[in-house]
Design a protein that fits this description.
The complex is a heterotrimer.
Chain A: H1 4-35, H2 42-60, H3 63-84, H4 94-116, E1 132-134, E2 139-141, H5 142-164, H6 166-183, H7 188-210, H8 221-235, H9 240-261, H10 265-279
Helix pairs in contact in A: 1-5, 1-6, 1-7, 1-8, 1-9, 2-3, 2-4, 2-7, 2-8, 3-7, 5-6, 6-7, 8-9, 8-10, 9-10
Chain B: H1 3-7, H2 9-24, H3 32-54, H4 63-78, H5 85-107, H6 112-131, H7 135-138, E1 144-145, E2 151-152, E3 159-160, H8 165-187, H9 189-199, H10 201-207, H11 211-237, E4 239-240, H12 247-260, H13 267-282, H14 292-305, H15 310-339, E5 371-382, E6 385-396, E7 400-404, H16 411-418, E8 426-431, E9 434-435, H17 441-446, E10 449-452, H18 464-477, H19 492-505, H20 520-532, E11 538-542, H21 550-566, E12 568-572, H22 576-582, E13 585-590, E14 593-599, H23 600-605, H24 607-614, H25 621-629
Parallel strand pairs in B: 7-12, 7-13, 10-11, 11-12
Antiparallel strand pairs in B: 1-4, 2-3, 5-6, 5-8, 8-9, 13-14
Helix pairs in contact in B: 2-8, 3-8, 3-11, 3-12, 3-13, 4-5, 4-6, 4-11, 5-6, 5-11, 8-9, 9-10, 9-11, 9-18, 12-13, 12-15, 18-19, 18-20, 19-20
Chain C: E1 4-13, E2 16-26, E3 31-36, H1 42-50, E4 57-62, E5 65-66, H2 72-77, E6 80-83, H3 95-103, H4 112-118, H5 120-124, H6 135-147, E7 153-157, H7 165-180, E8 185-188, H8 192-196, E9 201-206, E10 209-215, H9 216-221, H10 227-230
Parallel strand pairs in C: 3-8, 3-9, 6-7, 7-8
Antiparallel strand pairs in C: 1-2, 1-4, 4-5, 9-10
Helix pairs in contact in C: 3-6
The chains are: A mainly alpha, B alpha/beta, C alpha/beta.
Subcellular location (chain B): Cell membrane
Enzyme class (chain B): hydrolase
Main location (chain B): membrane
Chain lengths: ~290, ~625, ~230
């Protein structure tokens, strides 16, 4: 049995991982909910985000500037992807959408590999995040605490955009019935473009923020993507609250399990998914019938 | 060319290619080792081709079964538990099949996006289980080294199948047998049903086939193929690598199969050979090495955007177009003639309906029942809306019974409850005195309730004959049967049923025409014919005349009248002239409730019915009502 | 000049030809009813006007401007507004949010207060989610969503379908008020009596053809012409 301190520390790790997963899965789920497209390039875009942080950090030596520049780059990538490829696939079968985004994922990962090489890169922890913070009962790396805060702020921002702005209103209406949104005079294609780009920026930001914590490699996004699939199966397809809460649940399961036996951390996550599939196939927050 | 020879032509060509490849291809950069690896991938891909190409289920988790087969076989051999490589291959394959059964049970409940995500997640789960908890058995990240090669023969005459040409021969034999088997499966009744599932899952279930069971069968077959290929991987390279389980492996398989051409069975081989060749040869180009996969990825995107059929699929497609061009043009010309009203648009055959295939038997004690189907207090609520609200009526055996009512009266919902597509919020449906409600649409079909739909639900990619065959097979084979090796057209009673249906529908000349090419009126007839081809006791027709021209309507009415002599018919129809001409009894719904129920003539004169249709036309309704009351 | 002019449009639904050379016109301040049996092509006509379905041939002009082939969003901004048969209320959005989505691209949207005046019931339920509304309330919301855009032409598709008689009465009263206010409306409805009580003119549809054109007052006086396209005891 691990000590209480170890468990608490793992719970914090779970929070950090879970909030990142929530951010990744939010991007995935609003794209899926509005456009009906499952983005299999999501993992690759996570890695693209991390590499953007790497490049921008070298250029500007400021993490904040790196994040801002990174967002601009992700936005451009998102616009380009939607305009050049995704737009032509709205009317095609699910399988075609999956295949083409999977292909884009391959191209992005291989482009990273070709340009940066296969070896891992390091992104330094920002100057304001170096060291550890005493929390009274334990000492915890400062940047990870800040990471939790930043991601929470980003998710809150996404919440505000979705629930407090007119664009968000259109997105939520579009998730339910894109055709009716068009009948009410709103250009749905512009909304789709916006949603796709926001989703890509969300996953890119997750990659940028995660970059100082891990080794940056072209393949780093794959496991994040699969885990975020599990998150949206848990939370319910197309549900933003489901993605956030599902992400936190997934993060805690992985971290707390590894406090006992790290060999089982991922296995537990997939086991939970199997359980949800049997007991509540529409997910925790999904409505029956929206597939 | 004799027909028998032609039917095995693909096998003969494949045999020749496999024999010639190790002689002709090495100068082009295909080493024996590369060809062997391609064959292993191709065997693996045959399973995916059955799953995706035939049944339309795209799995991103095939590595789980590849790895399962591989590691079970490798562990058994290296640990000395099993001495014979052949036996280990068998055990590994079966183990993968069992895993496939378990994962498939969860995965086939969902389609499309969900299915891809779930298979991907379970694939990752298998990878992590192999990597950590089971690393004592699997070697974790190191894999299992020293897997022995298979031995042919016994004692002194035993021959080791070593790397190079012998191993190529072994893998070629395995792939060839796998191909022959896969082709048999594709041509079996199960293969036809899976093709139909891909086109229209709901309709297959309505005809009485257990769709989840067939999907699970396809999933398990794919897992068995993957397991065998995985099990052969260890002996082939004397080493079982952990990345057999990796996500990359599943992804590579999907890409190879799509590039080669899905649904062609040779596509996986061509795709694998191309992938491996590109990898081996592009890497040799100075300065280009790291780019090979990037190039492949770009090519893949282009393929998915443009040539969706893949290499073999495209070739096959063009060849078929070339071969069938004349026939297809003739079929289309006939369709245009019918649409333009030049050709006879409707069946003119006077023959009575005689269905060679027997109907589902009715319990002896109910055999004398006068009531075919009975609704008892049926209700269906959607949120606050009461679509159907406590409706009871009976349909007499052997009669033609109509359900009418204004729009929104609840007819469609009621009809769906009669065939148990929709479960009632309250009440029940009795079929010959026995409860039908709760059985589900598939079991209801097996008990002899067939339905034709308001909007055509045909298998557009299949021919008219195949459409009818899918229907008739449901009666002949029951809900589920794994007759994988039987030819699809191998049941004489089914073929006799199809021929009878074709004559009845006046579609004999169109038997080999794809359903997508038919004229609208012909499609409507086929829609009804598919329901009838299951030899039902009760036939439910949902707006059989929808969208038909006047002459087609008259002909279809005559057809329904003839069908009515052979089985009980219940129909929903808006063409009231037709209804009064056809039905002996009529049930009228209004706002979800029963408004009237009785003999046709009485219902026709019922003032309440008049009112429901035209409304109380203001104050001078009496006068207007008189006018409406006049019989034609 | 008519507000709406439709000239010989032909529309196909999948593989079946549904509208054959349908022509009609609607003058400003006029209420026009499209009557006919199910499957006669009435709903398809409305959907073709709104651009949800694209007619294969023919011309549609709104205020003299051709609109055939445009996307529904463009047609909506030109001043036409469809209230669809299935109501299509956004179930996860509140009543007020439903209205706010609708007014986003309107040129001169109504203030919310004006909607609350017309639909006091919706004001009571302004914070309720669409999916919790009753059928009648959903229909009101669907109509309100159109009104708030202040369109020059409203297309009502089966506004009374599946509703209890009392609620239908309310909605009929509402529609009469809108007509009296000078709104231009094209309505498709099976409840003939209800429609004839407020319509000015009627087009009868049968099998995708317009088979009758006349004044509602005439049909109120003598229902006989309706036998040809309503089909009871013909």
């Amino acid at each position: 049995m691990p000590s209480t301190a170890a468990l608490v520390s793992q719970a914090f790790n779970g929070l950090a991982l879970g909030s990142l997963l929530a951010l990744v899965a939010s991007g995935l789920t609003i794209i899926l909910g509005t456009l009906g497209v499952l983005n299999f390039a999501h993992g690759a875009l996570f890695a693209v985000g991390a590499y953007t942080a790497f490049v921008m950090m070298q250029a500007t030596h400021s993490f904040v500037l790196a994040l801002l520049g990174g967002c601009a780059i992700m936005l451009i990538i998102g616009f380009a992807m939607e305009r050049l490829v995704i737009r032509h696939f709205y009317a095609r079968p699910d399988e075609d959408q999956i295949l083409v985004t999977y292909g884009i994922g391959i191209v992005l990962v291989e482009a990273l590999r070709a340009y940066f090489g296969g070896n891992s890169q390091r992104v330094p922890v920002p100057s304001w995040g170096i060291g550890a913070t005493k929390l009274g009962f334990m000492v915890y790396p400062t940047y990870r605490l800040q990471l939790i805060g930043i991601v929470a702020a980003l998710l809150a921002g996404l919440y505000l955009v979705l629930y407090r702005t007119s664009v968000g209103l259109v997105v939520r209406a579009g998730i339910e019935n894109a055709g009716m949104v068009g009948i009410l005079g709103i250009d749905v294609r512009r909304t789709f473009l916006f949603v796709f780009a926001v989703g890509i920026v969300a996953v890119g930001l997750a990659g940028m923020l995660y970059a100082p914590v891990v080794a940056v490699t072209p393949d780093m996004g794959a496991s994040f993507m699969v885990q975020s699939f599990v998150v949206i199966v848990l939370g319910g397809l197309g549900s933003f609250p489901g993605a956030v809460i599902g992400g936190l649940i997934a993060g805690e399961i992985i971290s707390l399990t590894s406090a006992f036996d790290s060999a089982y951390s991922e296995v537990m996550l997939y086991g939970l998914m199997a359980l949800v599939l049997v007991a509540r196939p529409q997910g925790l927050f999904g409505t029956e019938g929206r597939v | 060319m004799p027909a028998r020879l032609r039917s095995v032509l693909p096998e003969l060509v494949l045999l020749a290619v496999l024999a010639a490849a190790p002689v002709l291809l090495p100068p082009l950069g295909f080493s024996h080792d590369l060809l062997s690896r391609a064959l292993n991938w191709a065997l693996f891909g045959l399973g995916l081709d059955i799953l995706f190409g035939l049944a339309g289920l795209l799995s991103f988790g095939q590595a789980a079964f590849y790895g399962m087969g591989g590691f079970v076989a490798a562990y058994l051999l290296v640990s000395g538990t099993i001495q014979s490589v052949w036996l280990a291959l068998l055990v590994g394959t079966v183990a993968a099949g069992v895993l496939g059964l378990a994962v498939g049970w969860l995965a086939v409940r969902r389609i499309g996006i969900y299915f891809a995500m779930i298979t991907l997640a379970f694939g990752q789960m298998a990878y992590f289980i192999e990597n950590s908890p089971l690393s004592d058995y699997t070697g974790g990240e190191n894999g299992i080294a020293g897997v022995p090669v298979p031995v042919l023969g016994f004692g002194a005459s035993a021959v080791k199948i070593t790397a190079g040409l012998p191993m190529y021969a072994l893998l070629a034999v395995a792939f060839f047998l796998g191909f022959v088997l896969a082709r048999r499966i594709a041509n079996s009744p199960v293969g036809l049903i899976l093709k139909a599932v891909k086109e229209n899952t709901g309709r297959v279930a309505m005809l009485g086939h257990d769709v989840p069971a067939y999907k699970l069968a396809a999933f398990t077959i794919a897992a068995l193929y993957a397991g065998l290929a995985g099990a052969m991987l260890g002996p082939f390279q004397s080493y079982m690598p952990p990345d057999a389980f990796a996500l990359e492996t599943s992804g590579q398989l999907v890409v190879q199969t799509i590039v080669g051409g899905v649904g062609t069975l040779v596509g996986p081989l061509v795709g694998a050979a191309l992938w491996l060749w590109l990898r081996d040869n592009l890497q040799l180009i100075p300065g280009f090495g790291p780019l090979w996969k990037l190039v492949l990825g770009l090519a893949f995107i282009g393929l998915v955007m443009g040539l969706r059929r893949g290499i073999c699929g495209e070739i096959l497609h063009r060849w078929r177009i070339h071969r069938d061009a004349a026939r297809l043009r003739a079929a289309q010309a006939r369709t245009e003639a019918i649409e333009a009203g030049a050709a006879t648009a409707a069946p003119t055959i006077a023959a009575d309906v005689a269905l060679p295939m027997p109907r589902p038997s009715i319990d002896a004690r109910d055999a004398e029942a006068e009531i075919a189907i009975e609704a008892r207090g049926l209700a269906r609520h959607y949120g606050g809306l009461k679509a159907v609200d406590g409706v009871s009526f009976v349909v007499r055996r052997g009669s033609i019974h109509a359900v009418i009512g204004p729009n929104g009266a609840g007819k469609s919902t009621l009809f769906k409850m009669l065939s148990d597509e929709v479960s009632p919020s309250a009440g029940e449906v009795l079929l010959f005195g026995e409860r039908l409600t709760g059985a589900g649409v598939t079991r209801a079909a097996q008990r002899g309730v067939a339905k034709s739909n308001q909007l055509n639900q045909l298998f557009l990619g299949l021919t008219v004959r195949e459409n009818l065959r899918v229907a008739a097979l449901a009666r002949a084979r029951g809900r589920f049967r794994l007759d994988l090796l039987l030819p699809g057209a191998g049941r004489p009673e089914v073929e006799a049923q199809i021929d009878a249906m074709l004559r009845l529908l006046d579609l004999t000349e169109r038997a080999e025409t794809p359903a997508s090419v038919l004229a609208y009126g012909e499609k409507r007839r086929l829609e009804i014919g598919m329901a009838l081809a299951t030899s039902p006791n009760v036939l439910l027709l949902d707006e059989p005349l929808a969208g038909m021209s006047p002459s087609e309507r008259a002909a279809t009415c005559a057809l329904i009248r003839r069908i009515g002599r052979a089985c009980t018919v219940v129909l929903v129809e808006h063409d009231l002239d037709a209804v009064f001409g056809l039905a002996e009894r009529i049930t009228v719904l209004s706002e979800g409730r029963l408004l009237a129920d009785g003999p046709s003539e009485a219902v026709r004169r019922d003032p309440a019915v008049q009112k429901a249709y035209l409304g109380a036309v203001q104050d001078d309704a009496a006068h207007a009502g008189e006018a409406v009351h006049e019989p034609a | 000049m008519s507000l709406l002019e439709v000239e010989r449009i032909n529309t196909l639904y999948g593989d079946s030809h549904v509208l054959f050379d349908v022509s009609l016109h609607v003058a400003e301040n006029e209420v026009v009813a499209l009557l006919g049996r199910n499957g006669a092509g009435k709903t398809t006509t409305l959907r073709s006007l709104m651009g949800v379905l694209k007619p294969r041939s023919g011309a549609i002009r709104l205020n003299g401007r051709p609109i055939q082939g445009l996307a529904p969003a463009r047609i909506a901004r030109a001043g036409m507004q469809l209230v669809p048969e299935e109501r299509a209320v956004f179930g996860g959005l509140t009543v007020e949010e439903n209205l706010r989505v609708a007014r986003l691209t309107a040129e001169k949207p109504w203030p919310l207060d004006r909607i609350w005046e017309v639909f006091p019931r919706l004001k009571e339920r302004r914070t309720s989610r669409g999916r919790t509304l009753s059928g009648g309330e959903q229909q009101m919301l669907s109509i309100a969503r159109a009104l708030i855009r202040d369109p020059s032409l409203i297309l009502l598709d089966e506004p009374f379908e599946g509703l209890a008689p009392l609620i239908v009465q309310d909605l009929v009263e509402l529609t009469k008020r809108l007509a009296a206010d000078g709104r231009t409306i094209v309505v498709v409805e099976q409840n003939v009596a209800a429609v004839l009580s407020f319509a000015d003119r009627v087009y009868g549809f049968n099998n995708g053809h317009v088979v009758y054109e006349g004044r509602a007052a005439d049909l109120r006086a003598d229902a006989a012409p309706m036998r040809g396209f309503m089909g009871l005891a013909a």
